[in-house]
Every structure is written in structure tokens, then in C-alpha cells.
Amino acid sequence: MSSKLKDFWRLFTAFFRIGAFTFGGGFAMLPLIEKEVVDRNGWAERDEILDIFALAQSVPGAIGVNTAVFVGGRLYGIAGAIVALVGVITPSFLIILVIAHFFAQFKDNPYVASAFAGLRGAIIGLIACAAVRVARTAIFDRFGLAVAVTAFFLSVNGIIPAVWLMVLGGLAGYLYYTRKKQEKTL
Q1: Residue-wise pLDDT tens for the chain (186 aa)?
Q2: Which helix (H) or strand (E) segment is 159 a member of?
Q3: Where are the domains of the chain?
């Protein structure tokens, strides 16, 4: 097997694992994406993955899919983006096919309903884990903490849409840290 083919296979299997073993999608995928991309494969540094997550969330689409496309594209161009995309969506596609085929039998099964109730709790834990990990590396001063708490409050209460929170957070950070840098040079 050629080196390029091995690289593509590694990329495909990494994102296939992410797609196969994260229930709940979206933010529940972040810890596994970080483990695969940073720890297992070394495709990004820990601080870079936060930028990748921010970029993936700032464009339309699912964060796991966007992250796969970004990482694959960054590593191997358009072909890498396609390979990572196919890897991350294939498990969901196959699972949906099976569920659609047997849906009538599954929908009223109390064991299946109980399993999904347990999964919901686990997903909340995964999302909380991702939030804590991101906070540890992204919040390094009082201003960052204030922006995070404000964005959380505004988001939870549905006051401002998420996309505007990102735009306003970016603008606030730009203004604050530019001013702070200018004050240091004086």
C-alpha cells in the first residue's frame, strides 16, 4: 500500500471512529475529535484544535463534519477533506439505514427507550467535559472569563443567536487585546 493511501486510510479510520462512537453528535464529539486529532495522530496541537473547533462552529453545518473537512483539507487538500468527510458520515449513514429498516420494531421497545434515556445523560456529560477542556485552554484571564459567562447567559436565555455571540465575542476580544497590547507598548 502506498504511503499516500496509508495516510488516507488513517484519516478515514480516525474520522470513522469519531462518527461511530459519538452519540449525540455536535459537541458530544469534541472530546473524541480532540483525542483522535491531537493525541492519537498528532495532526494538530492542543491549542490549534480550539481554533479548529471555533472555525468549524462558525460556518453552517455540523461541527463534527466541519471539523473533519477542515482537518482533512488542512492535511491533504480537497482529497483529504473528502476522505475525512466520508469517514465521519459513513457510520451515521449505515446506522440510519438499519434503524429505518427496523424502525417499526424498535420504536415501542422499552429496552431501546431505556438505553436512549441513558445515552442522553452520557451525552450531557460529554458536552460538559468538552466545555471544561475548552475553558481550561481558552480562558486565561478575567476578560476571557467575563466574555464566556456573558455568552453563556445570553445563549442559555436565547437572547442573542450563537452566530452573533461569536461575532461579538471576536470583536470584543479584538478590541480589548489590541488596546491592552497598545497600553503595554506605551
Answers
A1: 788 899 999 999 999 999 888 766 667 788 888 999 999 999 999 888 888 888 888 888 888 899 999 999 999 999 999 999 999 999 989 988 887 887 677 767 888 878 878 888 888 888 888 888 878 878 889 999 999 999 999 999 999 888 899 899 999 999 999 998 888 887
A2: none
A3: 3-138, 141-186
